Prior knowledge:
By secondary structure, the chain is an alpha/beta fold.
Amino acid sequence: MFPRLHIITDSLDVVRGAVGHGPVAIQVRVKTGDRDAYQLTVAALALCRSAGALCLVDDRVGVALAAGADGVHVGAEDLPVAAARRVLGPAAILGATCRDPDSARAAVADGATYLGVGPVFATSTKIGLPPPIGPGGLAAVVAAVPGIPVIAIAGITAARIAAGLPGYGVAAISAIAADPAAATIEFLRVLAFRDGVAAGGAA
């Protein structure tokens, strides 16, 4: 099953703490050079493989291919989705950042296998973001691309998930970083509870 929890990080300590507790995807995000990104991806990939977790690379298609990662996530200012799909081939996981139904439908048509949608809430993790779209904006994207995993990002907390945040899953950065193991366990717990309630099952 495609993981409902995506953890974005540039720290091997976070990867070590986060994997092994349930299905997660680790997204390696490095803002320095390709060499640093490659070295971290190779190390993260080894940890992910041993724990059965997915390993994706943020932005850098070449690094993902060189390291043998499971896929790539491209942002709005990165390589276009269609171009990334051509380079990656048909089998790799390809995520795309979107914030409205039109861009979501276009990304899926161009080959995205999942969407990272946001910012849903205000966050200080990344500067220069557009205004938050809120749960309502997130729900509009979910409705526009039925059957495509929509991963909410920015300002995500366990409490907000438990309140019924729409979408397939969530991505977290700062909420995981302080205590990766405990935070990952809690996020997975509330995601399972939310999905059980939504399906009418037992919590």
